[in-house]
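**Backbone geometry record:**
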Amino acid sequence: MKLHFTKMHGIGNDYIYFSTFDQTIDDPEALSVRLSDRRFGVGGDGIILVCPSDIADAKMRIFNEDGSEAKMCGNGIRCVAKFVYDHGIVPADKTTVAIDTLSGVKTIDLTVENGRAVSAKVDMGAAILKPSDIPMDHAGETVVDQPLEVGGKTYRVTAVSMGNPHCVTFVGDVDSLDLPAIGPLFENHPAFPDRVNTEFVQVIDDRTLKMRVWERGSGETWACGTGACATVVASCLNGFCRKGEDVTVHLRGGDLVIRYTDETVVMTGPAATVFEGEIEV
């Protein structure tokens, strides 16, 4: 059986996208493991299914490189919004689309140039700070600048959920970190029962941050949209940035602009198609 796919990325956070409007995907967990391999597969941080939805323009399902299913992906949802626009799933005059996820329905405003969506602004919803909802094993009402021992070293961490769990820690120099050694220790820390995405953040100024991310199930990726949102939330809670202001987050693959308010977190960034193809499965 042949499956049609589209390779897309949001500032280097790349996934293999399959529409299930016109084809059936069996065993997406195994398919993600097989195709994500950058030497023996298509290559990517996982696969994303673009599915019909009864409550939105489309539904998004995300499977990480290790086959585990995620609830939300900030870079992925921008690409899904571009996918449904560019492939005519929504009318050409509809530049605001709704995408159903395991974290709820998200609204995306598209910027269109020459008939193609090139960037998107996503209302990501309110940040979740209650430890049991992140989830994180912690007795307090929030986890802001709290000590956490990881690999024999104590880090100051802030925990946030943007539909998936994040642990944010501030460092002096993100480029010098050995993430392949540190990342798995955070990801599998017993304080996080569902594992955790970890953001290592260097504060440039009150409107500029630099971040590297270790994603659960995928390792270090070039970008993480929900991670950038969690980073700005944590930066505001720690007094490095201010609510209601645009903050630019520099990631390995490019920049995202995040605004954190009492009501929601808004993320703006590009979405790009790399190529389309067919693969025998």
Notes: The chain has a mean pLDDT of 97.
